[in-house]
Structures are given as C-alpha cells and as structure tokens.
Amino acid sequence: xxxxxxxxxxxxxxxxxxxxxxxxxxxxxxxxxxxxxxxxxxxxxxxxxxxxxxxxxxxxxxxxxxxxxxxxxxxxxxxxxxxxxxxxxxxxxxxxxxxxxxxxxxxxxxxxxxxxxxxxxxxxxxxxxxxxxxxxxxxxxxxxxxxxxxxxxxxxxxxxxxxxxxxxxxxxxxxxxxxxxxxxxxxxxxxxxxxxxxxxxxxxxxxxxxxxxxxxxxxxxxxxxxxxxxxxxxxxxxxxxxxxxxxxxxxxxxxxxxxxxxxxxxxxxxxxxxxxxxxxxxxxxxxxxxxxxxxxxxxxxxxxxxxxxxxxx
Length: 313
Fold this sequence. Notes:
Layout: H1 3-27, H2 42-59, E1 71-75, H3 82-89, H4 93-99, E2 113-117, E3 121-124, H5 131-138, E4 148-156, E5 159-169, H6 175-182, E6 186-187, E7 194-197, E8 200-203, E9 210-213, E10 216-219, E11 225-227, E12 232-240, E13 244-250, E14 255-265, E15 272-273, E16 278-282, E17 292-299, E18 302-304, E19 310-311
Parallel strand pairs: 6-19
Antiparallel strand pairs: 1-2, 3-5, 4-5, 7-10, 8-9, 10-17, 11-16, 12-13, 12-15, 13-14, 14-16, 14-17, 17-18
C-alpha cells in the first residue's frame, strides 16, 4: 500500500475514534482538567500514565498502528511559564506550544486554558495565523505519511469551537524554528515568508559550490514590502553582484542587519528608521534564482543565525 493511501486510512480511523471521544468529553464539559501539576492530584497521575503509555507506543511503533493520543486541559496560573509546565508534565514544550498556537516562549499564559496532549509530537494547524506558524509549516512535508489529522475543541469564554490539527508523532521544532521561538528580539522583516535556505553550510544554488550561508533566505512574491527588523540607522544602500540591491542597518552599536536581492530601495543613506519601517521590496537582483529576501544579522562583525533574534509581527 502506498504511504499516502495508508496515511489517509489511518487519519480517517483516528479521526473517527477522536470524534467519539470528543462527543463523550463534550457531555462531561470538555477535556479532563488537571487541577494541580502535582503527583498528589489523581488527574495529574492519570495524565502521567497516559504520557508513559504514549512514549512506550512510540518506542515499539508498529507499522499501520497510530500511537495513542489523549487530550487534557490545564488553566495556566499567574506564575506559570511554558518551559516549567512542560517540564512538570514530562512532555516537550514543542507539543504544548504547537497545539495551543503559542508563537513565542515569552507569550503570557496566565488565565489561559491550555490543551495538553499526552503524545510527544508537533501539532500543526491547517493555515498559519502568524509568522512563527508560517516558519513551522514550511519546515515539514505535507505528504509525510506519519501525519495524523483530527479535530480538537477550544473554549473562548462561553464559546466552544473546533479546528483541525495535523499531528507528526515524535517530531520537534527544527533549529531555525526553535531559535525563533526561544529568543525573540527583532521583528520578522516580511509580512509572511517561507524559509527556503537556513543559516550554515549549503550548496550555492547558482554556482553549486559548498559554501557557508551567512543568513537565511525567505521566499516571498516579488514586490512584497521588506521592513526594518529593529530601530537603527541606514549605513549602506547600493548594489553588488552577489547581494544585488541591498541595505545595511546598524542597530545598537554592536548589531547590523542586511537585506539582500531587493527589487528596489525605499530609504536613504544615514536615514534613521524604526522597527517596521518599509526599507524596500522583495526582488531577485544579484546572485539569485528567484524572488526572495536574503536576511543577515551581524553581532560585533560576526554573522549570527537571524532566527535567534527575530520575532513575529
């Protein structure tokens, strides 16, 4: 049987099982709520048992048998943070963040009813709501045969809604997505963009040579506005054969950002800009195979992974 056909059968079966469970949970008022993240609480102990069962199922995975997924809920308290919650539950924060659409480790959680899964996995939405989810979705193959699709319930006030979730068992954020999630400092330079080339060693798409890529490439339609990632002063505007039309902005004395392959430049040399100021538009000038933004951040003159600094709009 082809992987895609097998995936469709498993997803349909899993969705049917989940729907029955969801109907029963609706009558009970929602997912089982964990009152206390403590081994003295019986719901917490049941959750811990379900996590152990899920991990054992992953360790002895049988082809064609989806691992068990149970969903609980937890009302985040004033002093709770995502990493501490995940550690207490023995579940990766990647799972809690992705199923609850949490875009940054700094996002406040107090008073929020979180959906807590028992299966270590990534839980992807149908469509991205923000830059972080765009990066997350772009890092996975939608035809991955291990993906399980089902519906979850979310309550906002007195309203209960449902949405589709696509689960990739035992998956975690990749390096770019993780850095973006954990260390948000600068804003994302595009309204939306897909990472097509990450920071680090790669084959140059034009020459074919193995070289170090000092930034990240973000594919976007030609003419998409490009924004300054932080306040600063424009220290270079111009053209060269590699970067094409490009802009360099100095931020705090130690950091600079570079925006390459622009179609046009909309700011002037020595101009002071604010975070979000439109500095140009996406193009394909210089050494480029198609419309995209090449984005770099330098710290004390050394290129750093931009994903470790930027945050969503």
